[in-house]
Amino acid sequence: MTTFWDGPLSRDSRAAVEDVDWAALTHAYGAADDVPGQLAALRSADPTERDKAYWALYGNVFHQGTRYAATPYAARALISLAADPGTPERHRVLGLLASLAIGYDDAHLPRGFDAARLRREAAEAAERDPAEARREMEEWVAEAPSEDIRRNRAYHLEVFDFAFERDCMRWALESYDAVRAGTAVYRALLDDAAPAVRIAAAHLLAWFPEDAPRSVRALLALLDTEEHPTAAATAAVAALLLGGDPALADWAGEALGSDDEQLAWAAAFVLAGLGGGTARDEVVAVLRDRIAAEADAEEPDEAEGAAGEYAYPGTGHGDYAGFGADGCAGEPTACAPESEEEWAARVPYLDGDLAGLAMAALELLGEDGGDLDAV
Predict the structure, then answer these.
(1) Separation between Cα atoms, residue 334 and residue 162, nearest integer Å
(2) Which end of the chain is less congested by CB atoms within 10 angstroms, N or C?
(3) Which domain of life is it from (predicted)?
(4) CATH architecture of the domain covering 11-114+170-298+322-374
């Protein structure tokens, strides 16, 4: 078989690519025989070549959030690349792995990833009768609350392919488990010298609740020594999403008064997830300030805001695999921050719709997250 790799590479990394019959696997555009070259390009010394490879992979094995038969195999190769010190920009490898595991992370905030639900829905999809699934979808169309929504739902029915939807759920679960297999690698990378790698590793660990005990211990150990504010904030949110710990509340209580905006915002988010504690009033104030600061931001498109009305539940085109957010389009770097500086400048979870996140955090405290007049 052709060797695609240039430069020194571990045997495991080579095997993860060269021992796979990629032509027999598929992605969004057909046979996946182009994936080995794209994976190889992630180790290129040319940043333009790496950008093109990331763009391609976000578009084929993760097309608009959908995972495919080739995706779990790509994930295994990416884990090997993440573990290899010779791989440039390992933070980007970890970011891609997070996407392959769970899709778009905003669908799983502020409560974390529900792995049990993914497993249950994949099992249910595998057992469903296609005719019954179509009847249920016809009922869903008929129950639309408006004519506009009915037309959109009817379009989904028209293009509905149950076999593909069932495969999407299976591929989503297989991809999740493939990425989960690398949790020991991600925990080890919490000690990496590059802040961007520590941030990306912490962010990735948050999505595997079945491995929470070891991961929370590792994240709390990082918090004890971490001097980079964004890395500390990311580790804290990750630990929260994995269930939290009393030591996490202590950290957040101290960080809430930080002059660093990232730390204070993350601390408020963490404390909201833990119930607020004795700092409840201060947490509510920080979250309402965040909502007020975002109040002048552009309003989301009405159709996008009503995505739950249009997307058929229980298929691969939901939280785990489909159209919950914009896909990768346009420029090769459109899917994720590329530079170490960009990764080190923001907490991965706490970007995007900050007002929406703050509202959701307030609701965890039993507050009215949507009452902007109260801020």
Answers:
(1) 31
(2) N
(3) Bacteria
(4) Alpha Horseshoe (1.25)
